[in-house]
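Dataset card, provenance and construction

Sequences and ligand SMILES were collected as paired inputs. For each pair, a complete structure of the chain with the small molecule in place was predicted and serialized as structure tokens. The example below shows a pair involving flavin-adenine dinucleotide. Curators did not alter the output after generation; any descriptive sentences attached to a record were derived from the structure itself.
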Amino acid sequence: MDLEFTDDQLELRDAARQVLAGACPPSLVRSLYEGTGSPEELWKVIRELDWPALGLPEEHGGLGLGFVEVGILVEELGRVAAPSPLLATVTQFAAAVRGSGSSFALGDVASGRRTGTLALADDGRWDPTRPPVRAESEGSGYRLTGRVTHVLDGDTADEVAVVVGTDRGPGVVAVPGSEVVASRQTTVDPTVPLATLEFDGVAVPTERVLLAPGAPGAADAIARIVDEATVAIVLSTVATCRAIFEATVEYAKVRHQFGRPIGSFQAVKHRLADCFLAVERAGALGWFAALTVAEDDPRRPVAVAMAKAAAADCAQLLSRDGLQLHGGIGFTWEYDLHFLLKRAVTGDLLFGGGAFHRSRVAAMLGLADDGEAQ
Amino acid sequence: MRLRFDDSVEATRQEFREWLAANRPSVEEMAADPAVSTGHAPDWARRWTRAMFDAGWLVPGWPPELGGRGAGPIETFVVLEELAAAHVPRTTNVQGLGIVAPSIVDYGTPEQVRDHALPILRGELTACLGMSEPDAGSDLASLSTRAVLEGDEDTGEWVIDGQKVWTSGANYADFCFLFCRTEPDEPKHRGISILLVPMDAPGITVRPLPEIVHPDEPDLNEVFLDGVRVPAASLVGRRGDGWAMANGSLAHERGMVWVSAVMGLEEALGSLVAGAPAHLAAMGPHERALAVDQIVQIAIDTQAARCLGQRGFAKLARGGSAPEQALMKLYASDCRQRVARIAADVQGADSLELGSVPNDGHQAVDEPRGTWMEQWFHSFANTISAGTSEIQRNIVAERVLGLPRG
Ligand SMILES: Cc1cc2nc3c(=O)[nH]c(=O)nc-3n(C[C@H](O)[C@H](O)[C@H](O)COP(=O)(O)OP(=O)(O)OC[C@H]3O[C@@H](n4cnc5c(N)ncnc54)[C@H](O)[C@@H]3O)c2cc1C
């Protein structure tokens, strides 16, 4: 197992970092927090760079790179708390389309003309075996009813991939954003816009059925789609935590009290060493999980659940110690640190928190009672 | 970034696996005569080291005359992995093969390599590492065992007086890689030199220190040195360079120690998970849920230790620097401690019983063995020795994160 980036991958990372330093400064993030800005300009930059196309196959207008390269972009976006439809469009919607064995709208995704997302959460719980939206057959299509929460970009995405339940088992369909009643949720982090979607008898024609309910292997395909989306949240969240970590180490070197840098106090040093471990631990698990997705390895389900649980640990520690070690300044609205802290706690809980993913690991290790979360 | 190594690496793995199957010490001979100290090499262990040396598997990265085959780091990694998977120790003389021999190869004279390093590599001699003293533990550089040169640098003799403590394997080892203060007027980090000292030299007294578990098989010792005389040519490297060499050779070993640490952890987790259902079945639902969560958390840590080790290793193998490596000793030893304690908790009061798990000799003496609670006590060997976990955090904070010394 080779868990280090190739030279090309490192180059991609550095290039992305450089672009985002210019295109997504803290002032942009602040403008979202303060309701004065929009992510449109940044999205334009991202489209011009062909990032939406990066991981898509060439026959659909993509650049043909893999999930590792997509993960690199996701990390860089997480590092600067970038508001961008890229995460949901590529790692949720396109993942759902491709994971369903479909190519629906991929050309438009690659060109940046259409954005998308994935709808699965039932009151903040992401359990692919229990989707909150029901699909009833109607003619050759379906009619959807139900309510999904915490849909990333749910009120702005052009396309919503919906995991649906039927009597014959689960499936995936695509619904135009314009046909759904979406209400934006008011959450701690406006760079990760979440919405509740109501499906009140929305009709889905056959050509929008991505994965037919009851098709053989549908449940596995859906699990895989959700895993891919989950790993992306892991990579993004750990990158945010790394940014908190670096900011805190920097602050510990420059902030003086008692006539010396606070970073020379051992109580501070040891906490930062533990923070470093938490970030590296979650990062290593996250990239291992990403590789199992990229290479479709059978260790994927355990690897993803473990990575998400570790990302949750990491986000909890870094949001706590990052804030605590900054003292009063970290507690203010004026100082930019809170953008990262809020992005970290959001990533901790999206697609399930630590306890949920540990319960999945327990089931996969054969330690859970029958009937517990899978 | 990918999950598999190159085919050529897998070919090496296959070759080693076949050689291992044909040449390994048998489970029975290891169990019949397990090593009881890190200075102790039972006959099977001597033959085994010699076989590894002759076949070029002992230190794969070295040239054939030193027991290697000029292999790259990834091949070396694969060899260590296969050894651990087969439950065969690479050596019983951990300090000798891991630290003393490489240091002599790096810094010693050709005669020292011939008379000290090669015999270790051929399984003929064992060595111990004399660093710590009663007043010099974490603050090793303050050690005070003195060596004074009588006569000149070619024909003279070093006369050594002082005391070492926690010297693993000194009760069996043939010689000691001894850290002494030779330049009392220099600053403490620049006044230390290394001498090769036969353990049967007149003036040496070894007093074993029975340990917190398995006290009948002590590995730790006090070593008293009273007017011990060794030839001037026993000096390794240059006078006053002992501290720098210690950092060099320990770092040497850090690149790979994590492999056996992680595989030991994986083995422990494996038996925890295999044994857990019987205990979980007897618990009520809430207790069971809590116990399962503990097991899951250490399972995640175990996989994380493996991934972290491999991530750092991949960077090193490419010639880069790997900050992850600095975390591995801290993290793997902490995980090894927790897995034992969680397992003891899951097992319940039965874990208090002593001596119910025989030593089958498949682990190095410094690795936790025995019942879960014995393993838990034993695991402190690794959170204390070679730089305590607190010192590791200091090192990470200062050398990796660049925080100022306080
Ligand atoms: C099983 C085992 C095998 C060993 N084998 C060998 C061997 O073969 N050869 C050899 O030379 N030595 C050996 N040692 C010795 C080992 O290296 C020392 O025990 C270790 O360096 C700690 O020193 P100490 O025991 O004097 O503890 P101390 O240094 O007194 O430490 C006591 C406590 O204080 C803490 N502490 C000390 N300084 C600091 C600091 N600056 N910041 C924060 N906390 C601090 C420590 O972390 C520890 O918790 C071995 C030890 C063990 C347990």
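Derived descriptions for this record:
Residues 218-254 of chain A form the longest helix (37 residues).
Residues 122 and 132 of chain A are 5 Å apart (CA to CA).
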